[in-house]
Amino acid sequence: MSATAAPAATRPVISAWSAVSPYGLGAQALVDGLSSGRSTVAPVDGARWGVPEVPAHLVPGFETRQVLGKKGTRSMDRVTGLAVSVVGGLLDQPEADRERETGERAALVLGTTTGSAESMMDFTRTSLRGEAPFDVDPAVMPNAVMNCAAGQCSIWYGIRGPNTTLAQGRTAGLAALHYSTRLLSSGRAGSVLCTAAEEFSRARYWLERHSRAAEAGDDAEMALGEGAAVLLLQRPDTLSPARPALAEVLAVRTRVATGDRTRPVLEACVASALEAAGARPGDVWAASPSDAPGRLGERERQALTALFGTETVERVPGVGRLGDVSAASSTFQIAFLLATAALSDEAAGRLAVVTSADRDGSLACAVLRLVAP
Protein backbone atom coordinates (compact mmCIF):
# COMPACT_ATOMS: atom_id res chain seq x y z
CA MET A 1 0.00 0.00 0.00
CA SER A 2 1.57 3.25 -1.10
CA ALA A 3 1.94 6.07 1.42
CA THR A 4 1.60 8.63 -1.38
CA ALA A 5 -1.07 11.24 -0.66
CA ALA A 6 -4.40 10.42 -2.27
CA PRO A 7 -6.04 12.82 -4.75
CA ALA A 8 -8.36 15.34 -3.11
CA ALA A 9 -11.48 13.68 -4.55
CA THR A 10 -10.66 10.36 -2.86
CA ARG A 11 -9.14 11.50 0.42
CA PRO A 12 -10.70 9.61 3.34
CA VAL A 13 -13.15 11.45 5.55
CA ILE A 14 -14.26 11.01 9.14
CA SER A 15 -18.04 10.66 9.19
CA ALA A 16 -18.75 9.69 12.82
CA TRP A 17 -17.11 9.17 16.17
CA SER A 18 -17.85 7.91 19.65
CA ALA A 19 -16.06 7.56 22.97
CA VAL A 20 -15.99 5.79 26.30
CA SER A 21 -14.25 8.27 28.53
CA PRO A 22 -13.93 9.45 32.12
CA TYR A 23 -16.93 11.64 31.27
CA GLY A 24 -19.07 8.55 30.64
CA LEU A 25 -20.31 6.32 27.83
CA GLY A 26 -20.92 7.72 24.37
CA ALA A 27 -20.12 10.79 22.29
CA GLN A 28 -22.72 12.98 24.00
CA ALA A 29 -21.21 12.32 27.43
CA LEU A 30 -17.88 13.58 26.12
CA VAL A 31 -19.45 16.64 24.51
CA ASP A 32 -21.31 17.48 27.72
CA GLY A 33 -18.19 16.95 29.81
CA LEU A 34 -16.11 19.23 27.62
CA SER A 35 -18.81 21.91 27.71
CA SER A 36 -19.03 21.79 31.49
CA GLY A 37 -15.28 21.75 32.00
CA ARG A 38 -15.72 19.51 35.02
CA SER A 39 -12.85 17.48 36.37
CA THR A 40 -12.84 13.69 36.04
CA VAL A 41 -10.09 12.95 38.54
CA ALA A 42 -10.80 11.10 41.78
CA PRO A 43 -8.90 8.83 44.20
CA VAL A 44 -8.99 5.18 43.19
CA ASP A 45 -10.11 2.40 45.51
CA GLY A 46 -6.76 0.99 46.58
CA ALA A 47 -8.22 -2.33 47.72
CA ARG A 48 -10.11 -2.77 44.43
CA TRP A 49 -7.14 -2.00 42.21
CA GLY A 50 -4.15 -3.13 44.28
CA VAL A 51 -2.49 0.30 44.12
CA PRO A 52 -2.11 3.23 46.54
CA GLU A 53 -5.13 5.53 46.74
CA VAL A 54 -3.79 7.76 43.99
CA PRO A 55 -5.81 10.15 41.82
CA ALA A 56 -6.86 8.75 38.43
CA HIS A 57 -9.35 9.40 35.64
CA LEU A 58 -11.49 6.25 35.38
CA VAL A 59 -14.55 5.61 33.26
CA PRO A 60 -17.28 6.04 35.90
CA GLY A 61 -18.86 2.79 37.00
CA PHE A 62 -17.46 0.85 34.06
CA GLU A 63 -17.70 -2.90 34.56
CA THR A 64 -17.52 -4.95 31.39
CA ARG A 65 -20.24 -7.46 32.29
CA GLN A 66 -22.65 -4.71 33.30
CA VAL A 67 -22.11 -2.72 30.10
CA LEU A 68 -21.95 -5.58 27.58
CA GLY A 69 -23.94 -8.26 29.38
CA LYS A 70 -22.88 -11.60 30.81
CA LYS A 71 -22.77 -13.58 27.58
CA GLY A 72 -19.23 -13.90 26.24
CA THR A 73 -17.68 -11.54 28.79
CA ARG A 74 -16.73 -13.84 31.69
CA SER A 75 -13.01 -13.70 30.90
CA MET A 76 -12.94 -10.42 28.96
CA ASP A 77 -10.34 -7.99 30.30
CA ARG A 78 -10.85 -4.28 30.79
CA VAL A 79 -9.15 -2.91 27.67
CA THR A 80 -11.15 -5.33 25.52
CA GLY A 81 -14.35 -4.31 27.28
CA LEU A 82 -13.59 -0.64 26.64
CA ALA A 83 -12.84 -1.26 22.96
CA VAL A 84 -15.92 -3.42 22.34
CA SER A 85 -18.08 -0.87 24.17
CA VAL A 86 -16.88 2.11 22.16
CA VAL A 87 -17.32 0.34 18.82
CA GLY A 88 -20.82 -0.66 19.89
CA GLY A 89 -21.55 2.94 20.85
CA LEU A 90 -20.78 4.08 17.31
CA LEU A 91 -22.64 1.25 15.59
CA ASP A 92 -25.69 1.81 17.80
CA GLN A 93 -26.01 5.49 16.87
CA PRO A 94 -29.33 6.25 15.11
CA GLU A 95 -27.44 7.32 11.96
CA ALA A 96 -25.49 4.07 11.71
CA ASP A 97 -25.76 1.85 8.65
CA ARG A 98 -24.82 -1.62 9.90
CA GLU A 99 -24.78 -3.02 6.37
CA ARG A 100 -22.01 -0.60 5.33
CA GLU A 101 -20.15 -0.32 8.63
CA THR A 102 -19.85 -4.05 9.32
CA GLY A 103 -19.39 -7.10 7.08
CA GLU A 104 -16.73 -8.09 4.59
CA ARG A 105 -15.93 -4.55 3.35
CA ALA A 106 -15.55 -3.12 6.85
CA ALA A 107 -12.17 -3.01 8.58
CA LEU A 108 -11.12 -2.37 12.15
CA VAL A 109 -7.80 -0.85 13.21
CA LEU A 110 -6.95 -0.50 16.89
CA GLY A 111 -4.12 1.49 18.46
CA THR A 112 -2.68 0.29 21.75
CA THR A 113 0.41 0.35 23.92
CA THR A 114 0.75 -3.38 24.61
CA GLY A 115 -2.81 -4.62 24.73
CA SER A 116 -3.54 -5.41 28.38
CA ALA A 117 -0.43 -5.41 30.56
CA GLU A 118 -2.58 -6.70 33.41
CA SER A 119 -3.68 -9.78 31.45
CA MET A 120 -0.14 -10.50 30.27
CA MET A 121 1.26 -10.30 33.79
CA ASP A 122 -1.58 -12.31 35.35
CA PHE A 123 -1.19 -15.10 32.81
CA THR A 124 2.58 -15.22 33.29
CA ARG A 125 2.18 -15.18 37.07
CA THR A 126 -0.12 -18.21 37.07
CA SER A 127 2.35 -20.11 34.90
CA LEU A 128 5.18 -19.38 37.34
CA ARG A 129 3.18 -20.16 40.47
CA GLY A 130 1.43 -23.32 39.29
CA GLU A 131 2.77 -26.81 39.92
CA ALA A 132 3.60 -26.92 36.21
CA PRO A 133 4.09 -24.10 33.67
CA PHE A 134 0.98 -25.22 31.78
CA ASP A 135 -1.27 -25.01 34.84
CA VAL A 136 -3.04 -21.90 33.55
CA ASP A 137 -6.61 -20.92 32.80
CA PRO A 138 -6.95 -21.36 29.00
CA ALA A 139 -9.85 -18.91 28.95
CA VAL A 140 -7.46 -16.14 29.98
CA MET A 141 -4.89 -16.88 27.27
CA PRO A 142 -6.56 -14.78 24.50
CA ASN A 143 -6.40 -11.69 26.73
CA ALA A 144 -2.62 -12.00 26.95
CA VAL A 145 -2.33 -11.58 23.18
CA MET A 146 -1.90 -7.99 22.02
CA ASN A 147 -4.58 -8.16 19.32
CA CYS A 148 -7.27 -9.60 21.58
CA ALA A 149 -9.29 -6.38 21.81
CA ALA A 150 -9.36 -5.80 18.05
CA GLY A 151 -10.31 -9.41 17.40
CA GLN A 152 -13.13 -9.33 19.93
CA CYS A 153 -14.51 -6.11 18.41
CA SER A 154 -14.72 -7.75 14.99
CA ILE A 155 -16.19 -11.00 16.34
CA TRP A 156 -18.74 -9.14 18.47
CA TYR A 157 -20.11 -7.00 15.63
CA GLY A 158 -19.45 -9.10 12.51
CA ILE A 159 -16.67 -6.92 11.05
CA ARG A 160 -15.08 -9.34 8.57
CA GLY A 161 -12.64 -7.09 6.71
CA PRO A 162 -9.02 -6.41 7.68
CA ASN A 163 -8.37 -6.48 11.43
CA THR A 164 -5.19 -4.79 12.63
CA THR A 165 -3.59 -3.89 15.96
CA LEU A 166 -0.85 -1.25 16.08
CA ALA A 167 1.26 -0.97 19.24
CA GLN A 168 2.89 2.45 19.26
CA GLY A 169 2.33 3.98 22.67
CA ARG A 170 1.04 7.54 22.70
CA THR A 171 1.28 7.87 18.90
CA ALA A 172 -0.79 4.71 18.30
CA GLY A 173 -3.96 6.66 17.49
CA LEU A 174 -2.34 8.59 14.64
CA ALA A 175 -0.61 5.42 13.44
CA ALA A 176 -4.04 3.78 13.32
CA LEU A 177 -5.44 6.80 11.44
CA HIS A 178 -2.64 6.57 8.86
CA TYR A 179 -3.13 2.83 8.44
CA SER A 180 -6.88 3.32 8.07
CA THR A 181 -6.45 5.87 5.29
CA ARG A 182 -4.17 3.48 3.43
CA LEU A 183 -6.71 0.66 3.69
CA LEU A 184 -9.31 2.92 2.08
CA SER A 185 -7.06 4.41 -0.60
CA SER A 186 -5.83 0.97 -1.65
CA GLY A 187 -9.39 -0.38 -1.92
CA ARG A 188 -8.88 -3.03 0.74
CA ALA A 189 -11.86 -1.75 2.73
CA GLY A 190 -14.98 0.30 2.15
CA SER A 191 -15.09 1.69 5.70
CA VAL A 192 -12.77 1.55 8.68
CA LEU A 193 -13.46 1.75 12.39
CA CYS A 194 -10.29 3.48 13.59
CA THR A 195 -10.07 2.80 17.31
CA ALA A 196 -7.69 3.28 20.22
CA ALA A 197 -8.02 2.09 23.81
CA GLU A 198 -6.16 2.25 27.11
CA GLU A 199 -7.11 0.68 30.42
CA PHE A 200 -6.33 1.57 34.03
CA SER A 201 -4.95 -1.42 35.90
CA ARG A 202 -2.62 -2.41 38.68
CA ALA A 203 0.02 -3.55 36.19
CA ARG A 204 -0.12 -0.33 34.19
CA TYR A 205 0.09 1.80 37.34
CA TRP A 206 3.25 0.11 38.60
CA LEU A 207 4.88 -0.01 35.17
CA GLU A 208 4.28 3.69 34.65
CA ARG A 209 5.40 4.61 38.14
CA HIS A 210 8.73 2.83 37.88
CA SER A 211 9.49 3.69 34.26
CA ARG A 212 8.69 7.38 34.66
CA ALA A 213 11.00 7.69 37.65
CA ALA A 214 13.93 7.31 35.27
CA GLU A 215 12.87 10.25 33.09
CA ALA A 216 14.67 13.44 33.96
CA GLY A 217 12.35 16.38 34.48
CA ASP A 218 9.22 14.28 34.95
CA ASP A 219 8.89 14.93 38.67
CA ALA A 220 5.29 16.13 38.35
CA GLU A 221 3.44 12.88 37.76
CA MET A 222 0.29 13.04 35.62
CA ALA A 223 -2.60 10.97 36.91
CA LEU A 224 -3.36 7.98 34.72
CA GLY A 225 -6.55 7.93 32.70
CA GLU A 226 -8.39 5.34 30.66
CA GLY A 227 -10.91 5.09 27.89
CA ALA A 228 -11.44 4.37 24.22
CA ALA A 229 -12.42 6.41 21.18
CA VAL A 230 -13.41 5.41 17.65
CA LEU A 231 -13.60 7.22 14.31
CA LEU A 232 -15.53 6.02 11.29
CA LEU A 233 -13.48 6.58 8.13
CA GLN A 234 -14.96 6.32 4.64
CA ARG A 235 -14.25 7.29 1.07
CA PRO A 236 -16.20 10.42 0.07
CA ASP A 237 -18.15 8.53 -2.61
CA THR A 238 -19.58 6.11 -0.03
CA LEU A 239 -21.03 8.72 2.33
CA SER A 240 -24.73 8.73 3.14
CA PRO A 241 -26.90 11.73 4.10
CA ALA A 242 -27.18 10.30 7.62
CA ARG A 243 -23.39 10.20 8.03
CA PRO A 244 -22.01 13.35 6.31
CA ALA A 245 -18.31 14.17 6.39
CA LEU A 246 -17.06 15.80 9.58
CA ALA A 247 -13.42 16.15 8.57
CA GLU A 248 -11.19 15.25 5.66
CA VAL A 249 -7.85 13.56 6.39
CA LEU A 250 -5.32 15.50 4.33
CA ALA A 251 -2.02 14.05 5.56
CA VAL A 252 -0.34 12.03 8.30
CA ARG A 253 3.43 12.15 8.78
CA THR A 254 5.83 10.59 11.31
CA ARG A 255 9.35 11.11 12.63
CA VAL A 256 11.60 9.73 15.38
CA ALA A 257 13.52 11.79 17.95
CA THR A 258 14.29 11.90 21.66
CA GLY A 259 15.58 14.41 24.20
CA ASP A 260 16.50 17.88 23.00
CA ARG A 261 15.94 16.82 19.39
CA THR A 262 12.21 16.33 20.00
CA ARG A 263 11.10 19.89 19.39
CA PRO A 264 12.95 20.63 16.12
CA VAL A 265 12.12 17.21 14.68
CA LEU A 266 8.44 17.59 15.62
CA GLU A 267 8.41 21.00 13.94
CA ALA A 268 9.87 19.35 10.81
CA CYS A 269 7.19 16.65 11.03
CA VAL A 270 4.43 19.27 11.18
CA ALA A 271 5.97 21.18 8.29
CA SER A 272 6.10 17.98 6.22
CA ALA A 273 2.43 17.22 6.97
CA LEU A 274 1.37 20.75 6.04
CA GLU A 275 3.34 20.57 2.80
CA ALA A 276 1.68 17.26 1.93
CA ALA A 277 -1.70 18.87 2.63
CA GLY A 278 -0.86 21.89 0.47
CA ALA A 279 -1.25 24.21 3.47
CA ARG A 280 0.62 26.85 5.44
CA PRO A 281 0.74 27.53 9.19
CA GLY A 282 -1.56 30.52 8.76
CA ASP A 283 -4.30 28.23 7.42
CA VAL A 284 -4.51 26.28 10.70
CA TRP A 285 -7.52 27.04 12.90
CA ALA A 286 -6.65 24.67 15.76
CA ALA A 287 -3.60 22.69 16.84
CA SER A 288 -3.89 19.94 19.44
CA PRO A 289 -0.87 18.53 21.32
CA SER A 290 -1.01 15.16 23.07
CA ASP A 291 -0.21 16.54 26.55
CA ALA A 292 2.50 13.98 27.28
CA PRO A 293 3.76 14.08 30.89
CA GLY A 294 6.88 16.04 31.81
CA ARG A 295 9.38 17.68 29.49
CA LEU A 296 8.18 15.81 26.42
CA GLY A 297 4.77 17.43 26.67
CA GLU A 298 6.34 20.83 27.27
CA ARG A 299 8.47 20.52 24.14
CA GLU A 300 5.50 19.42 22.06
CA ARG A 301 3.35 22.34 23.20
CA GLN A 302 6.21 24.81 22.71
CA ALA A 303 6.71 23.57 19.15
CA LEU A 304 3.04 24.04 18.24
CA THR A 305 2.85 27.42 19.96
CA ALA A 306 5.90 28.63 18.02
CA LEU A 307 4.34 27.48 14.74
CA PHE A 308 0.73 28.55 15.23
CA GLY A 309 0.42 30.83 18.26
CA THR A 310 -1.16 30.40 21.68
CA GLU A 311 -4.75 31.08 20.59
CA THR A 312 -4.65 28.31 17.97
CA VAL A 313 -3.14 25.80 20.39
CA GLU A 314 -5.68 26.57 23.11
CA ARG A 315 -8.76 26.57 20.85
CA VAL A 316 -9.51 22.91 21.57
CA PRO A 317 -9.53 21.61 25.17
CA GLY A 318 -6.38 19.69 26.05
CA VAL A 319 -6.63 15.92 26.15
CA GLY A 320 -4.74 16.05 29.45
CA ARG A 321 -8.03 16.77 31.22
CA LEU A 322 -8.67 13.00 30.85
CA GLY A 323 -5.35 12.22 32.52
CA ASP A 324 -2.68 10.21 30.75
CA VAL A 325 -4.72 8.09 28.34
CA SER A 326 -1.55 7.08 26.49
CA ALA A 327 -2.40 5.07 23.34
CA ALA A 328 -5.90 6.57 23.19
CA SER A 329 -4.61 10.17 23.35
CA SER A 330 -4.61 11.21 19.71
CA THR A 331 -7.95 9.55 18.90
CA PHE A 332 -9.43 11.46 21.84
CA GLN A 333 -7.73 14.61 20.52
CA ILE A 334 -9.58 14.21 17.23
CA ALA A 335 -12.83 13.58 19.11
CA PHE A 336 -12.23 16.78 21.14
CA LEU A 337 -11.52 18.63 17.90
CA LEU A 338 -14.70 17.42 16.19
CA ALA A 339 -16.80 18.19 19.26
CA THR A 340 -15.37 21.72 19.46
CA ALA A 341 -15.69 22.39 15.72
CA ALA A 342 -19.35 21.34 15.73
CA LEU A 343 -20.09 24.25 18.06
CA SER A 344 -18.11 26.84 16.09
CA ASP A 345 -19.35 28.83 13.10
CA GLU A 346 -15.80 29.63 12.00
CA ALA A 347 -14.42 26.07 11.92
CA ALA A 348 -15.97 24.89 8.64
CA GLY A 349 -13.41 24.61 5.88
CA ARG A 350 -10.52 25.39 8.22
CA LEU A 351 -7.54 23.17 8.95
CA ALA A 352 -6.56 21.47 12.18
CA VAL A 353 -3.29 19.90 13.22
CA VAL A 354 -3.11 17.01 15.69
CA THR A 355 0.29 15.93 17.01
CA SER A 356 1.50 13.16 19.26
CA ALA A 357 4.81 12.41 20.96
CA ASP A 358 5.85 9.26 22.78
CA ARG A 359 8.72 9.03 25.25
CA ASP A 360 10.25 6.18 23.21
CA GLY A 361 10.85 8.65 20.38
CA SER A 362 7.96 8.29 17.94
CA LEU A 363 6.39 11.54 16.73
CA ALA A 364 3.35 11.98 14.51
CA CYS A 365 1.26 14.73 12.97
CA ALA A 366 -2.09 14.69 11.16
CA VAL A 367 -3.66 17.52 9.17
CA LEU A 368 -7.44 17.55 8.89
CA ARG A 369 -9.84 19.83 7.03
CA LEU A 370 -12.99 20.44 9.04
CA VAL A 371 -16.35 20.23 7.31
CA ALA A 372 -19.46 22.16 8.22
CA PRO A 373 -21.85 20.07 10.35
From TrEMBL:
<keyword id="KW-0808">Transferase</keyword>
<dbReference type="InterPro" id="IPR000794">
    <property type="entry name" value="Beta-ketoacyl_synthase"/>
</dbReference>
<dbReference type="InterPro" id="IPR014030">
    <property type="entry name" value="Ketoacyl_synth_N"/>
</dbReference>
<protein>
    <submittedName>
        <fullName>3-oxoacyl-ACP synthase</fullName>
    </submittedName>
</protein>
<dbReference type="GO" id="GO:0004315">
    <property type="term" value="F:3-oxoacyl-[acyl-carrier-protein] synthase activity"/>
</dbReference>
<feature type="domain" description="Beta-ketoacyl synthase-like N-terminal">
    <location>
        <begin position="13"/>
        <end position="235"/>
    </location>
</feature>
<dbReference type="Pfam" id="PF00109">
    <property type="entry name" value="ketoacyl-synt"/>
</dbReference>
<dbReference type="GO" id="GO:0006633">
    <property type="term" value="P:fatty acid biosynthetic process"/>
</dbReference>
<dbReference type="InterPro" id="IPR016039">
    <property type="entry name" value="Thiolase-like"/>
</dbReference>
